[in-house]
């Protein structure tokens, strides 16, 4: 038994090699194709075999020429040499520049497993050594996580959703807005059991049986629109705000806005209604005619939506795609406001939920994951990627702050908003606005990245390469020669999750899963746990012991299981002994009836005085005084339409007329698995596919199968054309996560969409990342360049 972000699997091993796999159907209700990639990636030619150092770095150390990153040859060294090299460099940076000069916030989707969590362990090592600069928020939920605590008092991205059985029974209209749950539920942060697919299939049945209406609102006719045969509304990217405002306005005009709800459960409704009516500073009436010109949905359709929402039990399911945009904070704020106008929040089957597309959201689970709210205290808050949901009976996980005493337990690390990494490196000492506070950027000299791929995930890849030249040392710990590894100075090879024992749980807490080692480590790859231990051993026994607490990785596995069992025993929940569990491969927990009947915010609806929300008014804040007080021009005190920096209504379309969106990939987890045969399922002539509308293709004389250059002022990439009516006219779509493969002039030969996306923040509030841009496309007539990124980099002999 083993597990992954794609589901649990059963592996077949022979002579220490991973030879085959089967779906683990006892704990996966709906296995997906992506699990095939787990086997395929293991012996891919992009595996890192040995610790490697860039030649120039080996010669000159931190004084090397950083512009040679990605160009120099590599030199393989022994683990002993690597440990010493890393330990010495850490010591130097601590001594010369102090803890804040080391960036250890390394973001990314490393594998599952409670012991070998490369990021928590990196933090643990760096805290022992003196602390480090870390991060807050995530690339997934930067804007929603920053804004929603002000609006409803909760981190809505992590909140419990109204349970699916309630929706199937009560909801009349399901609106899937900026979400593609049929695609994105393939994956979970914990292990997915894919139960959500059972519910989506049932939803499809209810469409026939009960006449449930499903509406998808998206610039793309996506996997979900298709699976459910939904009524699809094509909207221009980043213009949902006018659309939602007009729906509110028209509901108000038709007398179907729920005035009682607004009065009893929200704060600031009158001020906001005045804004909608054109009585605000901008004097613009936010009616359907106004919105239609901006969002590209026709006036009558907007009025129809208002009529439907105003008369039916409506569940608004918001995804996170639209908040990865300039002013991305507005999306969920306005969607919650629209739900308040409808007035069904807290009822069976009505209201809203912002997590149905993610990690089996809405599936009843045995424990109520509490979810963490964005803490006003930067140091106290951690992104989703460093915490497992605090579920019961929760499986322990090795935390950044371990359980032993010691001064390093209480490090007061600086945390920067995760997607501001380039600004931080470029502007040391600069004071910036963030989340109604001020933050001063530290001076970063070194970055240690483990279990993430910044050269994939961050916008404006060329700017990243230029900015990272300011780092004296860049270390990457990964299993594969990713774009980030290729741009590093020191590369440390990690085992995959199938090459080590570990323990994990399903995201919905239904299972604790044993992760049996299926295969011996590839070449000289080592477990993340052992890599940090090796570095610390170089530094001192005290440091090493603080890290391991005297336990081997195997002992930690048992420790975590026993900690769960102790909690379970105390609550009379049966759990077998560790030995039985390990033998069987999993423990299953029963789902209580109450979880199947859960209705989000039902208590608040019942009594908003006693069950007040965690906002200053205790109500849903359509107007937030706190945000108003911050005085941000790009995030005022109530949901506001502000033109984004690049959109179809801007002057910039003269040069770059197409609006690019970059959603999550169907056959990858970001950049993961792009180095397997799965990429053949989608690529066009070996390039990332780009979807373009027939009219836009015709204007450029493009056909399906053509290779094109997609470009703007930030850079250029190749892509393979797919002409399709699945995108709105004026919109093009390329999925994130294609491996970056720049030629000598910087053209990405393969199709890493982030080359084209701006680094600019969403606003001063969240300082979040964007995922849209304006671009132009033209046919690529040159000879098709060969890809390099899916083979080994060039090595030279030592010395
Ligand atoms: N344009 C655009 N950009 C986006 C997005 C978008 O929608 N559009 N989405 C954003 C979002 S939501 C996210 S979450 C990010 C994702 O960005 P990342 O999480 O950085 O992307 P991954 O490709 O999952 O990178 C994970 C890396 O960890 C490595 N890894 C896996 N297992 C292990 C392990 O056990 N040990 C070690 N040491 N390494 C391991 C993998 O090989 C891989 O290189 O991308 C963001 N970027
Ligand atoms: N297969 C697969 N599943 C995944 C992942 C993966 O990489 N692969 N990644 C996982 C991760 S880390 C995360 S954070 C989640 C991400 O979950 P999401 O952020 O919800 O996923 P996206 O695909 O980025 O966007 C969802 C939808 O929003 C649409 N969209 C984009 N811009 C706009 C807009 O302006 N308005 C409207 N109305 N719609 C818009 C896109 O076309 C897409 O259909 O998915 C998770 N699931
Ligand atoms: Mo994400």
TrEMBL record:
Pfam families: Molybdopterin, Molydop_binding. Residues 658-770 form the Molybdopterin dinucleotide-binding domain. Residues 47-537 form the Molybdopterin oxidoreductase domain. The keyword NADP does not apply. Keywords: Metal-binding, Molybdenum, Oxidoreductase. PROSITE patterns: MOLYBDOPTERIN_PROK_2. Its EC number is 1.7.2.3. GO terms for molecular function: trimethylamine-N-oxide reductase (cytochrome c) activity. It comes from the Bacteria. SUPFAM superfamilies: ADC-like, Formate dehydrogenase/DMSO reductase, domains 1-3. Belongs to the prokaryotic molybdopterin-containing oxidoreductase family. This is Dimethyl sulfoxide/trimethylamine N-oxide reductase. It comes from Campylobacter suis. The gene is dorA_1.
